[in-house]
Amino acid sequence: MFHFSFDRRTMHILIGVLIAIAVLQYIANPGELYHLLISIPGVLIAITFHEFAHAFAADKLGDDTARREGRLSLNPKDHIDPIGGLMLLVAGFGWGKPVQVNPRNYTRKMSMEKGEAIVSIAGPFMNFILAFVFALLYCAIYKFANPAFLVSTTGNAVLLIVAGVISINIGLGVFNLIPLPPLDGSKVLIPFLPYKAKEWFMNNGQIFYMVFIIIWLTGIAGSIITPAIGAVSNGILSLASWICGI
For the purposes of burial, counting CB atoms within 10 Å of the CB of 56, is it exposed (0-12), middle (13-18) or buried (19 or more)? Predict the structure, then answer.
């Protein structure tokens, strides 16, 4: 998942600015605080399962590093990075504690690059699975719950929480598939690159980090992933609705 490997001071300043802007927006719109609070379960679930999936995939490929470090766990405290979790909550993108892996321990049935690609894509894939499961839950509640419950304060809160879990997981999954370091998508892309392109890509990681920061701060990233998030959301919700007969 999201993992910084350069000038942390600069990154923390940028993160602080983004958090401050988001907090000011919530202060200016107090009504949005309610929606912020009900998004907390979605953030905890999305990050915890995302990082667990990385650890699980690496363990299945023969690397027990994550197991020895206690990351084969579904306890949020083992995976939540305070700043990354807050960023996901208030700014729409974030990260958990990176799962440490050692590709040299992977099974020799595949290359280390392919192994890293599998471990990397496991996180976003888990997010999409969770989004689908909670979409089924949302449709089932909507179809079978008592109408009085649906219009009650409790029913409204339950539906909003479930909807939040769906949207946060889809957003996190799509976001991490952007093929730029430090995101999972970069490691998924590498095995498919020609040798020279692969070598250049790996030797110029710092450039891609800066490109990532620029496209996010300028809003370009949002314009790129918003259509993808919409398409994935429509697909998952349509399938869940069809299964539930809505």
Answer: buried
Q: Which residues are catalytic?
A: 51
Place of tokens 């998942």: 1
Strand partners, 96: 80
Exposure string of 138-157, with b = 16+ CB inside 10 Å and e = fewer, is bbebeeeeeeeeeeeeebee
| Residue-wise pLDDT tens digits, 26-63 | 677 766 777 778 888 999 999 999 999 999 999 999 99
Q: How far apart are CA 3 and CA 120, in angstroms?
A: 12
For residues 20 and 176, what is the distance between their CA atoms, to the nearest angstrom?
A: 23
Distance of CA 15 to the CA centre of its chain: 17
| Four-point Cα dihedral 212, 218, 224, 226, nearest 10 | 120
Q: What is the pLDDT of residues 139-166, one digit of tens each?
A: 999 999 888 988 898 999 999 999 999 9
Instruction: State how far the alpha carbon of 68 is from the alpha carbons of 63, 97, 100, 101, 239, in Å.
Output: 10, 15, 10, 11, 39
Domain residue spans of the chain: 8-244
Mean pLDDT of the chain: 84
Prediction pTM value: 0.83
CA dist., res. 214 & res. 221, Å (int): 9
